[in-house]
Amino acid sequence: MPEYLIKQRKGWYATLEIPKALRSKFGKTRFKETLHTDSLKVAEIRKHALVAVWKAEIDAARGSSSNLDRVVLVRKKMAEQKKPDPVDLAMILTPQTSEEMSDLEKNRHDLSKVLYGKKFPLKQFVADYEKTLTNIEPKSKDMRLSTVKRFLKKFKYAEDATNREVKNWIETDLIAEQGLSATTCRSIVSHLRQYWKYLVDRHDLTLPEPFKDVVPARTRTRKQEVAVKRTHFEPEDYQKLLKACKDSQVETLMRLGVYTGCRIEELCSLKLEAVKEDRILIQDAKTESGWRTIPLHKKIVKLVADLAKSSKDGYLISGLSFNKYGDRSNAIGKRFGRLKTACGYGKNLVFHSFRKGVATQLERLGIAENVSANLLGHDVPTITYGLYSGKRLDFQLLHDTINKLKWD
């Protein structure tokens, strides 16, 4: 049975058990209310608002919620169609401790405005918002929540977040003090827009979003932008890194990277069933064009065979650890980062720069762009080859092309 749901007479009801110690206070053993639907999918969406209110009531009865939490709860009850019990509301609003009484006296003006809908608190709905983020990857979810919480440290109420104040926050706090780029700030604003829209759609926030034109067009000079733009490794850079490397896994990763053009996560997640005698198959890419066959360069045929034979965990690069998002490339990527920094390379050169180096060599060799795109897993940009062609090229052509790469 789905959580917090029961089905009766072909309709779904939201329900939540009340702790035994509080049942006498509520006069019942559980909360229960119809969701006015026979669709489980719709019920799963509608239940969250009710359950959130019920949990807030339980916290208020326990005395474990703040004054603002209780005021938001009462505000919700006052906004419902049915008339709330004045005694019930008064019980919820009554401070439980001397600290809460002191907080009530200190913030009475703001709390009164919240109660009567003149101020909208932003923090109280983050937990509910998190429950709606079900169709995105865990890492993306954490990034969105982290962005929202960063915003809420600055802005407690929606009324505080005017366009001017948000712009000042971005330019002063994020760009000037924290050194974030305009691109990063635009990503932050995109996440905040989603949270604001959620509040408008689900919690009756009526203020328009304050994020129009809050990120400056440019935060660096042209000279600075060129200096930090990521570039490619040349063969002499690769040889320098190999010579300095004392980490066998990082060395293996580099050798595979320069002769395949693969991304670091593609190599670290490559399983043995995708490794053949003369090729590797990239079968877990984010786009259709990323799913591809890469012939093995003559320089790594033996290396790949040895790695496959000695693997103890089913991966071509054996023994890597997973982070909390199931990513095997995170730790070894940091180890490579320490190596390249020790060799004197800056932020504009990363592991992905090997992939850029492969693309650069193919371009210098005059390789047709559709051939390079097939090897690197890029979309083919032309109408004829990109739209109408079957896209997959002859293996021998790809084999001959990849073997033109020279890194020694």
Automatic annotation (TrEMBL):
PROSITE patterns: TYR_RECOMBINASE (PS51898). Pfam families: DUF6538 (PF20172), Phage_integrase (PF00589). Residues 228-403 form the Tyr recombinase domain. Keywords: DNA integration, DNA recombination, DNA-binding. It comes from the Bacteria. Belongs to the 'phage' integrase family. This is Tyrosine-type recombinase/integrase. It comes from Paracoccus benzoatiresistens.
